[in-house]
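Reviewers of the previous submission asked for a worked example of the structure-prediction workflow described in the proposal, so we include one complete record here. The input consisted solely of the amino acid sequence. No template or homolog information was supplied to the procedure at any stage.
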Amino acid sequence: MDLRGRNKVTPEFNMSSMTDIVFLLLIFFMLASTLVTTSAIDILLPKASGKTENKKSIAVSIKKDLTYYIDEKRVGESVLESELINALSNQDKPTIVLRAEESVPVQHVVTVMDIANRNKFKVILAVKPN
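From that input alone, the workflow returned the following structure tokens.
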């Protein structure tokens, strides 16, 4: 007399559906990460071995034709200080990320650093990592 049941459930777990989901998530995040862009002007930065920290700050960019930009807004050198004061007036630790191209004369970089020093702004010099 055979008392065992005919319908036997196998205790194996099939992982194929789980790997499909993980693969689709991987593809989604890879595609989504390539669509993220920084809001900055495209300039060639000098190389260095350090990193720049990205906090809540204002980016000042100086292109090789000596045009100044605050974030993506073009400003003249004469109104640069007043625009920076207006932009950083509501922050408790105002920080400027200074992005100057390699071919910009040092005097123009020092001008922005002098404005930051007079107004007690912290300056971070952005560089391209090695």
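The longest helix spans residues 16-34. We consider this example representative of the routine output the project will generate in years two and three.
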